Amino acid sequence: MRLRPRQKTFVERSVAALASRGNTLGVAPTGAGKTIMLSAVTGEMIGDGAKACVLAHRDELTAQNRAKFQRVVPGVATSVIDATEKSWNGQVAFAMVPTLARASNLADMPRLDLLVIDEAHHAVADSYRRIIDRVREANPDACIFGVTATPNRGDRKGLREV
């Protein structure tokens, strides 16, 4: 799958920010192709043996993220953590937040190098925080990459702490 010029710029800037500053929030408007861009960023960031997890809060987003990733970054093994399947076998796992946030599932989570949060404006919720805390506990050097169209929350809770 070929990226449009503005998507390529988003990916390049996101990868550079992750490399130089660590945790990064990518903001793009609805319809910009955030799923394609987060897939490309993930593909760029998972070098030799690196392990990543892409979080989403709904089944449809988890399935969409995985399908797009497989088109954007073919040949990389993927797996799913949701209500019906709980596999960390892929280099990139696609996880449902409500499922992964359960203590028993968090205990099975391997050391991650990259955590990608789709619809990152939700990341201040307790379920996301449990996942983020577990990722940081297992690997303090893990990068967190959030993507959203709406970085300003109605409740004024900031994403900076995440």
TrEMBL record:
Helicase ATP-binding domain span: 15-162
Source species: Paragemmobacter kunshanensis
InterPro entries: Helicase/UvrB_N, Helicase_ATP-bd, Helicase_Restrict-Modif_Enz, P-loop_NTPase
PROSITE patterns xref list: HELICASE_ATP_BIND_1
Swiss-Prot/TrEMBL keywords: ATP-binding, Helicase, Hydrolase, Nucleotide-binding
Protein name: DEAD/DEAH box helicase family protein
GO cellular component, one term: cytosol
Pfam families membership: ResIII
One of the record's GO molecular function terms: hydrolase activity
